[in-house]
Structures are given as structure tokens and as C-alpha cells.
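User: C-alpha cells for this one?
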Amino acid sequence: MTAEVPDPLTAYVAAKNAHDVDGQLACFASDAVVRDEGEELHGSDEIRPWIERTTAAYDLTVVPMSVAENGPATVMTALVDGDFPGAPITFTYFLIIKAGRIASFRTEAG
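Assistant:
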């Protein structure tokens, strides 16, 4: 099953699956905060290396399964496959979208 993904998540998922670093970064606000793999990253200068590193290391593909609004957050559950132990695995993405860009991004596995 796939879910209808709202913008800018549509663009993010497409760029993620195309391994397009610039396309992924363009989906984030310049002052966005990302929480992933125990890190908290602030702004484009910290987010770009994270995108480059995860794109090169994991060769990820993301298939959205569900998307819901939960208060101010958009919650997307997706099947994520790639070069990591246990793949594929379900991830939950918690996002705040402001002015058409991802302002806050957090992932949880399982």
C-alpha cells in the first residue's frame, strides 16, 4: 500500500529515492532542525552533510505507507529499504512543515 504524500514530502521522497542530495536539501527550511541517529542538526550547513552521509552509506529507498496530521505535526510511516541491518524496516517520520518547507524532521525506527 502507498499513501498520498503532501508537498513538500512528495518532493523529499522523490529526491530521497533518486539519491538527489540537492533535491532533498531543497525541501528543508534554511533553519530546519533534524533529529536522526542520535544527532540534532540545525540549518542547511549541518543538514547537507547528514544527507550526503546517509545517501552514500545506506542507498535508501522510501515507500510511504500512511500519512496523518497530529496537531502541528505531519506523521508519515514508510517502509525504508537499503544497505543497513534488518532492512527493510518501517520508519515513522515526524515533521513540521512551515511555508512549504520542512522545518522540523525526526525519525523513529520500528
